[in-house]
Amino acid sequence: MDLKTLKTFQLIVKYGNFNLAAQEMNYAQSTVTMQIQKLESELGVKLIERGKEIGLTEAGRLFYDQSLHIIKNMEYLQTSLSNLKSGESGHIRIGVTEPTASYRLPGILKNFMSEHPNIRISVEISNTPILKERILKGEIDLALSTAPDLGTELYFEPLFQEEFVALMPENHPLAQKEVIVPEEFRGYRLLITSATCPYRRKLEMVLQGNGNVMLDTMEIGSMTALKYYVQNGLGIALLPKIMIEPEISGTTVRMVSENLILMTFGILCRASAYPLQNASGKLFQQLKLYLKEGQFPAFEQNLPIPPR
After folding, report:
1. Which position has the higher pLDDT, 60 or 195?
2. R_g of the chain, CA atoms, integer Å
3. Could you read off the pLDDT of 205-218 as tens digits, one per residue?
4. pTM over 0.85
C-alpha cells in the first residue's frame, strides 16, 4: 500500500468511476484496476462493489474514512519534511554562556524568530566546559561560548574578543586612577566567579602572569550578580564591558592596562556537523552577522534587522 494507491482509491469514491479516477491520476484504466485489486489482496477484504454503479462495501467505507486521515497526515508530513530541508522549520537546541545569554542573544533571536516563525528554539545557559560536553553527546546543536580545548570532534569559529574592565565602588582608592595595572590589585579583594568558569581562569592567568600578583579573592557563583556585590562595597570585579553599560549606581569603571584581559568568543559545534545545515545553518549565519568582531549590537530591546 502506498500513498498514490490511497489517492486513487479516494478518487474512485469521489467520481464513482474508475475511468475518471485514472484520467485525474494520468494513469491507464488498467493500472487503476490493478492498483485496487492489489490493495484488496493486501488487506484481505473487498473494498469496492463492481457493477453498473460502483459502491463501497462495509470494509470499503471504513477504509475510506481512515484513508482520508492517512492522506492528510502524509501530506502534512511531506510539507514538514520539505520545510525542514529548506530550513524554514525545525528545532534548534542552542547553548550559550553569559553575558551573551542575557545581553546579546535575546534581541538576535527576536529578529530571527520573526523571520522564521516555524522554527522552534531551545536555549540552554551554562559554562563552556558543560556546553562542550553537551555538543559531543548530541544534546545541543551548537553553542555560543569561549574557545574550548578543541579536539578533532569539535569546530570553533571565533567571532569577537570579549573585553573586560574593572568595576569598583566609586569611593575605592583605585577609582582615582584612569587605568589600572595588575600589580595594583594587590591588597584589595577581587570578586571572582566559580572555578569552572573560563573567564575566571583567564583572569587568574593574566593577573598572576603579569607581576605575580597575589590575589585576595571572594567567590561569587553568578557573573551577573557580581556588580551588585561591588555596589555593596565587597570588592572589585573584572567584568565583560557589556555587562556594566550603563554603570550601576555607586560604582565606577576603570580600564585594565593594555587590554590585557580579552576572551575569544565564537560559535561551537561538532566538526562533523559543519557547515551547519537547514534551520541551524540559517541561525548560524544570523549569529555571525550580528556577533562578528566589531559589529555585534549593543543590548537593546529593539535591534534593527541588518541588511541582507
Report:
1. 60
2. 31
3. 766 665 555 668 89
4. no
- DSSP-based three-state secondary structure for 154: strand
For residue 252 the three cell numbers come to: 565606577
If residue 286 lies in a helix (H) or strand (E), which one and from where to where?
A: helix 278-291
Strands 262-270 and 154-169: antiparallel
- Residue 293 pLDDT > 70, yes or no? no
Cα–Cα distance between 102 and 95 in angstroms, integer?
12
Instruction: Please determine, for residue 220, whether its predicted confidence score (pLDDT) is greater than 60.
Output: yes
Of 284, 28, 21, 259, the residue nearest 162 (C-alpha): 259
Nearest CA among 99, 51, 60, 308 for reference residue 198: 99
Helix (H) or strand (E) holding 41: helix 29-43
Contact 194, 200 (CB under 8 A): yes
Q: What is the pLDDT of residue 304?
A: 43
Domains contained in the chain, CATH given? 3-86 (1.10.10.10), 90-159+264-291 (3.40.190.10), 163-262 (3.40.190.10)
Distance CA 156, CA 267 (A): 6
Those residues whose C-beta lies under 8 Å from the C-beta of residue 72, and which sit 6 or more positions away, are none
Whether residue 47 has pLDDT greater than 80:
yes
Phi, psi of 198 (to 5 degrees): -60, -30
Contact 255, 184 (CB under 8 A): no
Taking the C-alpha atoms of residue 187 and residue 190, their distance in angstroms, rounded to an integer, is 9
- Of the candidates 108, 173, 194, which has an alpha carbon nearest to the alpha carbon of residue 144? 108
DSSP, residue by residue, 155-166: EEEEEEEEEEEE
Q: What pLDDT, on a 0 to 100 scale, did the predictor assign at position 198? A: 65
C-alpha cell at 119: 522554527
**Residue 103 identity (one-letter amino acid):** Y
How far apart CA 175 and CA 233 sit, in angstroms, is: 13
